[in-house]
Amino acid sequence: MSPFIQLFRRYLREQGLPVTQQREVVADVVFNSLEHLSIEDIEADLKGRGERIGKATIYRTMEILVRSGLVEEHDFGEGFKRYEHRFGQQPVHEHLICTSCSKVTEFQSPEVLRVREEASAMRGFRPVRHRLEIYGLCSDCQARGVTVSYQGLTCPVDLMN
Ligand SMILES: [Zn+2]
Ligand SMILES: [Zn+2]
What we know:
Bound molecules: zinc ion
Number of strands: 5
Strand content: 5-15%
Structural class: alpha+beta
Radius of gyration: 20 Å
Number of domains: 2
CATH topology of the largest domain: Arc Repressor Mutant, subunit A
CATH superfamily of the largest domain: Winged helix-like DNA-binding domain superfamily/Winged helix DNA-binding domain
Distance between the termini: 66 Å
CATH class of the largest domain: Mainly Alpha
């Protein structure tokens, strides 16, 4: 059994919450993935394993996992949350999010970490975690000819032309 499942079990016990097989299976899906999973993704994975677990249980389990600190919750502006194992391959990483196909690409940057440390140190701040999300079009979508549709106000100068 994954050491993360054991940590999750311990958390559930400490919180006085029932340690159920269903919760462990849901947690196992997230711990075995390096993706940024939506509730639908988790549901599909469970179906693939032949597990019949209701959405309410999945939501509740994800809520507990986020509170435990084992899983990070993301809102990439898609109208739903995505979840990621916080102790995956790249513990500290940044995100590139494609606004066309929703692909999330991770990268690591010593420069970003340096900025974090410097900006914090200058202000006597102790950084714990940070979040950098870059939105745009992935290379596949650009190759498919997708262009960015600007949503918002048009520059007044344009309106005069
Ligand atoms: Zn894309
Ligand atoms: Zn990530």
